[in-house]
Structure formats: C-alpha cells, structure tokens
Design goal:
This protein has 467 residues and is an alpha+beta fold. It is 48% helix and 8% strand. A hairpin with a 2-residue loop joins strand 8 and strand 9. 25% of the residues are buried.
C-alpha cells in the first residue's frame, strides 16, 4: 500500500558571500595572496594598479563614484585597511627543506647515464618519510618495469641504492635501523669507539636492542668502559635521517609566513596581522564607463555587455566583502585566544597553557565551532619564544588533586621531567610513572601515561635503561 503525505523540511542555503568567506577563512596568508591574484586575473572589472600611476588621467574609478541605478551594487572594491606599503618587510620561517629535491640535486652531480638516473630517481621516490627504503629489491624491479617501463635487475638497483646511501643526510636509503646506524658510523672517523660501535651493531644487534649489556661484554670481550663509550656513540646517531615528517617530502620547500605577530609592550599584550601583497581592488575605468554609458540605451548589445559587467561586479562584491569578513573573523578569534591564554603568552611557559578546545573560543566569539576550526587551520603566530601553529594552543584538560583544571601539555611536561630525572639504570615503568605523577599532584591512569609517553616519543622503560 502506498502512503502519501506532506513533510515540511527547513533547509538553509548559503549565500555567495558566505561561500566566499568560508573558502577564504581556510587559507593561510601565502595562499590568500595567490587567491587574490587569481581573482584579479579572472575578473576583468578588477584592477590592482594604483590609481593615477604612470598617467595624468585616472585609470580606475572607485565604485563610490557610481550610482546604484547605474547597475552598480552599493559597495566599494577598494580595501583601505591594508596599509600604504604594498609589500612591507616580513619574516618567513622555513618549515622543511625539500628532502626529495635535495636527494635529486645530489643525484644530478653524479656521472650516471640516463637509464641509471631513471632507476636512481625511482628509488628516491620510493623512500618513506624517515628516509628508509622499506621495499625489497625484487619488488622495486617489478615496479620499475610495470609502473615506469624501466627494465632493470636487482644488481643495478643495488648499485644505485649504494650511490644514494652515500648522499646527505648520512643514513638515507637504509633498509632497516641497523643499516641506517652502520651507514652513519662508517662515515665517521674510524676511532676505536666507532669501530667497537660497528662491531656491536654487526655482531650483537639483538643484545643491543634488548639492552642486554652483559651479554654484549661477554660476546665481544670489551671491558665495561669501552662498551659504554661505544653504546654512547650509537645513541648519538640519527635514527630518522629523512626527518620523520611528511612535510619533508613536498616537491618544493615550504615556508611559514605568520598570520599574526605577538607584541609585548611593557606587559601589555597585543598582536598585529601583517598584510603582504594585498592589492587595492578598484573597478577598471573602461568597464565603469560602459555601465555609465548604457543607462537609457536601447541597444541590445550594449545592454548585454552591461549585464555581463554587472555579473562580474556582483562577483567582485562577494569577494571583497568576504576578504573583510575573513579579516574580522581572524581578528576576533585571535583576540579570544590571546585573552584565554594570557598567562602563557606573557611567559612562554608551557605549564601556563590552560585547557582549551574549539568550543571555548566559539562561545567567546559567537562563531560556530566549524568557523573556529577553519581559522585555526594552517595559521601561525610569531611570538618572542617561537613560531607556533594556532592548533598548538588547543588541548584537552583534566583536574589535578586541588580540583584545578590543567592542560594535557602541562601533564606531558611534568611526565617528561619525571623521566628525565629517573635513575637510568632502573628506569620507571608506566605504573611507577603514574605514582610519580601523583606525587606531583596529578592523578593519571597508567594507560594515559602510556599514551602520553608514546606521543612524546619516549620508549618503554627497558629501552631507556643505561649502564
């Protein structure tokens, strides 16, 4: 049996201005500059050339000079709050030099034929984010044949891998941790300690990873002092030559341009928002003239041209208004974060970071949580104690024994201090660390200790053991 009925649903349709604002909110300052440039290139009614430059006659016209009934919406395309200097000085902060590009540059300095270059390039592209080759040689040969159409054999791949393993950073191209450490040791000056370290990794790797130092002494015949020096040498090596970050693998070097700069004027905290290469948006005069001349005209072609320009002007309206709203939204959000975390921004001490989630700032500003999320994403602030992503200041919290709410960052810092001060010959287990944290006034479950320890990159107790 078919049933019929009426159902009332309420849907909300976003306006062009809202859509533009949402898109622009997510952009960091470098991408925003590019977005503005693209808009100017795609919208012929906009012109970023300063008015009056290079000519006695004014080239562009402010929309204020045009009337609403001349097909012009009542808005201005000139943004007056960006400052006079179109490109003020600003600092950029390198995030990561392109790891892949660095290896390719080094490859280009080797005397290899085109075929060898192709094989080596494919190997470089197969390295993981730590700089390791986690693929076996036969699989690489198959991939080279089927994916790249390059016919080779395991012998040539091994040969090219050896060349790559000679590149900087030392240890790159290793297939496991032992090979990575050995590559670094073999690149060192062959002192007695280095030779002993190579021997330990070659003959006693299992004993070394399990911290069975007495077995190493028995197996190698080294005395305790020599063994300690060799192990210390190993522990100073870099287990992650690629950097361990996906940012290392972008095709071009990345730089951070802070969206905010923290300023401390005799204890009075404030921030500025540098505006780089943001053009003055003005209506191109010839299009404005077209609209003015079309008033009262009966010619169809001229009317159609005016309608086209009107549509482009509407598009410009949403874009410029969205820019203004982006500016205001970032301003209010950063003001709320600065006020909420005032103790931290005054001192730079992590323990002064209060628990703060997106909802807290949303309630202060009146914005949706999704809006705060877009503002926080990919935005950075320069402070006297470093450059930080805005995400850094957000963390969950829990209560201490005094009933005060503390951030997870504070807990992690105290946990790190407990581990740094432990007796390395008898490192603390997670359960013991939980008791130690309780002595400091923080009641934290063992499983939470394990989670925080993992996030801090701190190994289990048995891996932290030293002689």
């Amino acid at each position: 049996m078919i049933k019929q009925g009426l159902e009332l649903k309420q849907t909300q349709k976003l306006s062009p201005l809202q859509i533009q604002t949402i898109k622009l909110l997510e952009l960091p300052i470098q991408d925003l500059e590019q977005r503005i440039r693209s808009e100017i290139e795609e919208n012929p009614v906009l012109d970023d050339s300063p008015s009056g430059e290079g000519s006695e006659e004014q080239k562009d016209i402010s929309i204020d000079e045009l009337k609403e009934d001349d097909y012009i919406p009542a808005y201005k395309t000139r943004v007056n709050n960006w400052g006079k200097d179109p490109r003020p000085e600003y600092n950029t902060f390198s995030v990561k030099t392109s790891f892949t590009q660095s290896l390719m540059d080094q490859l280009g300095c080797r005397s290899l034929d085109e075929h060898q270059q192709q094989v080596a390039s494919f190997i470089i592209g197969s390295l993981d984010e730590d700089g390791y080759l986690r693929r076996d040689i036969e699989s690489l040969c198959d991939d080279l044949a089927f994916r790249a159409g390059i016919v080779t054999d395991s012998s040539e791949v091994e040969q090219m891998l050896k060349i790559i393993q000679d590149f900087e950073p030392v240890g790159v191209g290793a297939r496991d941790l032992r090979e990575c450490l050995l590559l670094q040791l073999r690149a060192c000056r062959p002192t007695e300690d280095v030779q002993n370290a190579i021997r330990i990794l070659t003959d006693c790797y299992t004993e070394f990873t399990n911290k069975h130092f007495q077995k190493i002494i028995s197996k190698t015949g080294l005395d305790e002092a020599a063994m300690k020096r060799a192990v210390k040498k190993i522990l100073k090596l870099n287990p992650s030559p690629g950097g361990g970050s996906a940012d290392s693998y972008v095709e071009s070097a990345q730089q951070i341009v802070p969206d905010f700069i923290l300023e401390d004027n005799d204890g009075e905290l404030s921030f500025s928002m540098p505006r780089f290469s943001v053009p003055e948006l003005r209506v191109n005069k010839k299009y404005a003239d077209l609209l003015l001349s079309s008033k009262g005209s009966s010619e169809r072609a001229q009317k159609e041209a005016a309608a086209f320009v009107k549509q482009k002007l509407d598009s410009a309206k949403w874009f410029v208004e969205a820019l203004k709203q982006r500016q205001n939204t970032l301003q209010r959000t950063m003001e709320a974060i600065l006020d909420y975390q005032k103790e931290y921004f005054s001192s730079g001490d992590e323990t002064n970071l209060k628990p703060m989630v997106l909802k807290d700032i949303a309630q202060i500003t009146g914005y949706d949580i999704s809006t705060i999320s877009r503002v926080v994403n990919s935005k950075y602030i320069e402070t006297p104690f470093g450059v930080f992503p805005l995400k850094y200041f957000f963390s969950e919290g829990m209560e201490n024994q005094q009933g005060e709410e503390v951030s997870t960052r504070e807990l992690k810092k105290v946990l790190q201090q407990c581990i740094d001060s432990e007796d390395k010959s008898k490192p603390l287990t997670d359960e013991q660390l939980a008791k130690e944290m309780e002595k400091h006034g923080y009641k934290v479950a063992r499983r939470t200790i394990a989670k925080y320890r993992g996030q801090l990159g701190i190994p289990l107790a048995r891996w932290r053991k030293e002689l």
